[in-house]
Structure formats: structure tokens, C-alpha cells
Backbone:
């Protein structure tokens, strides 16, 4: 580490009061964890180290206790005092967990929820972001079993700092070296020092389609993927808001496990959940593609094909957004969406007015690449004073950031 870097880490308490658990597994790379702990402490973080029993063979608890200025936890029980280490309290204490080095064995355990040591129990009890920093030999890293575990851990919202290439303890050359402490530190700094302007706010987001049952095996649905709504929930949580996400049936996982996710199927179920939370919400973003009509009388048994023609009787669902617009109190910010195929702006402005919104996010199916499918969207934001902002086609995560910027402007 150069002089300038060293000074930056020493002089700026960038991680002031951030509570970090550093998990350490049994790998030769554990010696690097000492430097990581030192960097975190110098930046003002409060660090508690949790080691697996094997890790003690590679670095002593005394070293990490001295650097972290806290006792190191290894076992559920302290051998001499018989005291129990409360893994739940440790998991809930942390603003962030980083497991460095994470061995193939621990990754396999975590991806399967195996909980046979203190570190895996703390991991299962935590609600904060978890970073995994693997270290292993190149063939262990490449092995389909390890790759499957990594994918499953990432799908479950864990964040990966991948191993780098170079000379390994075995003498082989390839990918498997634990990332350097300075590189890990920069990643954590970027995550934890993000401004949290919404930290006193509660947000309610709806996302995805709704499925209205025709009979036990069929439904009426739509092509909404839920990606924009999920990205908005993530962005609001990153900005510090306490987020509740009510999602229709989608194939998505959240990265930030502080978001409270409620899964529903039908428009009626979504309405019932929204009613529970909207009174206490400061920000409400209704991005779900809620069915406008539901089957009046869904069959209890599978409908058999007999007649040449078959009519479905539909009845209107409650417009959740409109209901919130009617009941909204001063200080509550309400955002709606409009997906249009023609007379886009006129339709969007009518919805904005009729539903009493603070702003509406319009997307037109006439814009190439925009809409439900894919990872991109092109939006126009129109606010209640009819100010209009037209955005380029961009990734749905960037679209979510634009929407949240507008929320920040208005809140
Ligand atoms: N919406 C809702 N509840 C419904 C229908 C729609 O909350 N039952 C919300 C959506 O979440 C979205 C907005 O209303 O934020 C606009 O949805 P859209 O389908 O574009 O408009 P509608 O008002 O349903 O009008 P139309 O389908 O006639 O265009």
C-alpha cells in the first residue's frame, strides 16, 4: 500500500461506527485478513471477528483480537467459562458481514444452510449484506460443485468479491487467490459510505404481474418481469429507506436482505397487503402491472373442454394506485406507472390527475427496447406540475436510479 493510500485510510474515519463482522475460514490466505481488519479499524469501523475452528491453524485469535480490539469468537461455548456466544445477536448486530477467506467447504455449507459452527450460524441469523471472498486452489474454484454453490449464494443475495489469478499455495498458477485486502476494503467502502438520505423514511413498492385464476391450473396474467420494481426497491434501500416490497409472481431474488418481501398472486391479495402498509409509508411506488379485471367466479375444478366457444365473465379489480391517491395524506409521496401504446403523454397525464399522483413514470411500447421484456427501458417522468423529463433507453437498474433521484428531489 502506498503512502497516500495509507494516509487516506488513517486520517478519514470513513466507516465511522459501521459494525462489521469479519468471518475467517481455514485457508492460507487468512494471513491477509489481518491487514483487512487493520484497514477497517483505521477507517473507524467496529469489527468483530468470527473464525471457523480450522482458521485457528492459519492465524491466531490473539492476532485478530488485538487488531480488531474485540474478543474473537470461534465456538458456541467458551471452553473456560462455559458462556454461550449468541449467534443471533451477533448476526443482527452487523451492518455488514465479510467472509474472507471463504473456503470451498464453508461456501458449500452456507449455500445449503448447514449450520455446524458459529460462523455459519451467524451467517444464517444476519439480515445485512454479506460479502464472500473465496480463496482456494484453481481446480477447486473451477469445480462445478463450487460454481453451483457460488451461483446459489449470489442468487440468494450474497455479494461476491471473486478470487484473482496468480500463484497459488499449491504452486499452481490460476484463479483462486483471495482478493488483496486493499481491494476488498475499497469495495466495502463504496458500499458502506453511500449517502443514506432516506434513512428515516419508509417505502412501499409493488412489482411484477398479478395472476388471476380461471381454475386451479389456469390464470390470466401479463408479461411483467418485476425487474424495474425490484431495482427501485433495492435503490431505495441503498438510499437508507426501510422498504417493503409486495411482489406478484416473478423469478427474481433481492440482493439487499433488509428489504421485507411479501409475495402475492392476485390483484386482491396485492390490495390486501398494500392496505396493511400504506398508512405508515412515506414513499409509495406502485410499479406492479396489476390486472384490471379478474375472473368473477373461478372454477374450483379444472374446466374440461366441451363447448366450441367459451366465455369468461370478468369483473373489475380495485385500482390500488387510485385508492392510495384518494387516501394519501400530506407528506406521503405517491408514484404510479403508465404503460401506453398510443396517445402516451395524454393518457399518462390523465392518470396522473385522476389518481392524484406526485409523478408518473410513462413508458411507451412504441419505443424500441422499452417495456416489460428485457433488461432495458425508456421512460418519461411527468410530475404533478406537468414538468416533463425524457430519459434515454437504459438498463432497468439505471432507470430505477433516475426514478429514485426524482423521489429525492420531491421528498
Ligand atoms: N394499478 C393499480 N391497480 C390496478 C391497476 C393499475 O394499482 N388494479 C396501477 C399500476 O400499478 C400502475 C398504474 O396503476 O402504477 C397504471 O396502470 P395501467 O395499467 O397503465 O393503467 P390503468 O389505470 O389500469 O388504465 P388502462 O389499463 O386503462 O390504461
Residues:
Amino acid at each position: 500500500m502506498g503512502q497516500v493510500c495509507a494516509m487516506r485510510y488513517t486520517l478519514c474515519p470513513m466507516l465511522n461506527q459501521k459494525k462489521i463482522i469479519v468471518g475467517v475460514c481455514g485457508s492460507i490466505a487468512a494471513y491477509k485478513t489481518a491487514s483487512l481488519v487493520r484497514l477497517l479499524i483505521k477507517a473507524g469501523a467496529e469489527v468483530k471477528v468470527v473464525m471457523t475452528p480450522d482458521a485457528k491453524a492459519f492465524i491466531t485469535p490473539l492476532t485478530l483480537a488485538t487488531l480488531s480490539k474485540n474478543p474473537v469468537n470461534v465456538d458456541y461455548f467458551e471452553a473456560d467459562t462455559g458462556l454461550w456466544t449468541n449467534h443471533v445477536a451477533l448476526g443482527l448486530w452487523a451492518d455488514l458481514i465479510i467472509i474472507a477467506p471463504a473456503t470451498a467447504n464453508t461456501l458449500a455449507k452456507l449455500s445449503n444452510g448447514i449450520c455446524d459452527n458459529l460462523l455459519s450460524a451467524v451467517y444464517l441469523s444476519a439480515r445485512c449484506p454479506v460479502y464472500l471472498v473465496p480463496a482456494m486452489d484453481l481446480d477447486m474454484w473451477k469445480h462445478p460443485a463450487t460454481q453451483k454453490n457460488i451461483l446459489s449464494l449470489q442468487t440468494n443475495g450474497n455479494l461476491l468479491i471473486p478470487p484473482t489469478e496468480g500463484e497459488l499455495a499449491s504452486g499452481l498458477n490460476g484463479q483462486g487467490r483471495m482478493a488483496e485486502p486493499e481491494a476488498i476494503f475499497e469495495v466495502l467502502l463504496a458500499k458502506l459510505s453511500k449517502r443514506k438520505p432516506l434513512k428515516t423514511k419508509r417505502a412501499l413498492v409493488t412489482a411484477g404481474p398479478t395472476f388471476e385464476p380461471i381454475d386451479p391450473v389456469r390464470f390470466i396474467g401479463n408479461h411483467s418481469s418485476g425487474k424495474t420494481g425490484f431495482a427501485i426497491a433495492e435503490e431505495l434501500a441503498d438510499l437508507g429507506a426501510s422498504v417493503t416490497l409486495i411482489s406478484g409472481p416473478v423469478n427474481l431474488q433481492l440482493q439487499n436482505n433488509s428489504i421485507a418481501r411479501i409475495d402475492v398472486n392476485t390483484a386482491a391479495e396485492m390490495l390486501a397487503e398494500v392496505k396493511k402498509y400504506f398508512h405508515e409509508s412515506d414513499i409509495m411506488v406502485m410499479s406492479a402491472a396489476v390486472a384490471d379485471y379478474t375472473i368473477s367466479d373461478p372454477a374450483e375444478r379444472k374446466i374440461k373442454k366441451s363447448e366450441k366457444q367459451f366465455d369468461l365473465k370478468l369483473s373489475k379489480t380495485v385500482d390500488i394506485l387510485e385508492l392510495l391517491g384518494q387516501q394519501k395524506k400530506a407528506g406521503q409521496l405517491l408514484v404510479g406507472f403508465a404503460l401506453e401504446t398510443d396517445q402516451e403523454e395524454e393518457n399518462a397525464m390523465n392518470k396522473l390527475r385522476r389518481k392524484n399522483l406526485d409523478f408518473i413514470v410513462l413508458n411507451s411500447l412504441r419505443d424500441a427496447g422499452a417495456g416489460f421484456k428485457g433488461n432495458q427501458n425508456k421512460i418519461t417522468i411527468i410530475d404533478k406540475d406537468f414538468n416533463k423529463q425524457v430519459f434515454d433507453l437504459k438498463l432497468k437498474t439505471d432507470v430505477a436510479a433516475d426514478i429514485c433521484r426524482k423521489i429525492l428531489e420531491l421528498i
Remarks:
- Confidence is low (pLDDT under 50) at residues 1-12.
- Residues 267, 286, 288, 290, 292, 317, 319-321, 336-339, 351 surround cytidine-5'-triphosphate (CB under 6 Å).
- Residues 396-410 form the longest helix (15 residues).
- The radius of gyration is 25 Å.
